Amino acid sequence: MEAFADEADPSGVEDLLAAAFQVLVTDSGHISKIKRMFVLDKRWARWDGECRKRTSLRFSGENVMNVIQRAVALGVGAALLQALMLVAFAWPATNIAPRDLPLAVAGPQAAVVEARLSGQNPGAFELTVLPDETAAREAINEREVYGAIVTGGGAPRMLVASGAAPAVAQQLTQIGQQLSGAPAAPVEDVVPADPDDPRGAGFGAMALPLVMAGIAGGVLLTLLVPSAGGRALGVLVFGIAGGLLSMLVTQGWLSIVPGDYLTLSAVAGLVSFAVAGTVTGLATVIGRAGIGIAALTMLLIGNPFSAATAAPELLPQPWGAIGQLLPPGAAASLLRSVAFFDGAGALRPILILLAWAGFAVVLLGIGAIRDRDRAEPALSTGPASEPVPVTA
């Protein structure tokens, strides 16, 4: 019928009379078979194309403005996030100082030393007076104090535990030199750090990879696994494999953490499960915004205030205490207790990590219930039944 398009009405309204006349005259044998007739008007096509072009230009201009606005907003947001990360990581490191640091004083002159320390450094130490050196050593081994000043029999002697925190041990050594008045004051490291990592740099560097790997694992499971049950299984596998592999590297290869391999692997696995499970669980319950909430909490608050390279009492308060309530801080404390103190002081960080792991399980359980509720109506409805032909 394209051949008759020029015979349509110039106003753009299709006129079928001319085209119908041609068909009736030239092929009257098919009149009875004609049910519908279409006329293709090229002028209409050109007008429609121009309209589409104008509409496309208008929408493309709006899209360009939206893209520009989004790009500017994302650039500003990324800059603010960068500034926030600098504050979160640099501010605690530049404000290291003892704040109610647990310290024991033992021996016959303990009262004199206590008064001197309280006068010189008010609020710096939480002093505990013990009867003798044996009690002081026991307090250090039980992680009740970071060190002890033992008096009697000459100049005061300092007992430290670099396994608890090398930074604290260094500061206590300086205090011991001030009290004795000698540049080489007698200092004994009761619980030393690993010989391959005497300053604790390697131990402190473990915290960030554990957190980052947990966040990455949670994000991948959220994006690639649609069901809550599948995500829970993935988090469990990640926790087991991550714990075994991380301790294989840090203990077997780098040799910076002493202790039982399987016990340390269980600790690392619990940390991995808690971090990845929290990311995945929040994303399952509240959507992808949960990824950002969990990641920022673990990375910007949990990691810089974990005290992995120092001690919670050296960080600005209350952030040092808050950091111990998050998985990175609890992980650092638990690993030190297991690796250097035979599990002393491990109860509190274990409970904190178990609480986070339980929180993750609850969130994933809520997601599993939602998945089941969505699936039940579809199963009850079932596929539409096909009509059955009936013979006459």
Automatic annotation (TrEMBL):
The entry's keywords: Membrane, Transmembrane, Transmembrane helix
Transmembrane domains' residue ranges: 71-91, 201-225, 232-254, 266-286, 293-311, 350-369
Domain of life: Bacteria
Position of the signal peptide: none
Name of this chain's protein: ABC transporter permease
Organism, scientific name: Nocardia jinanensis
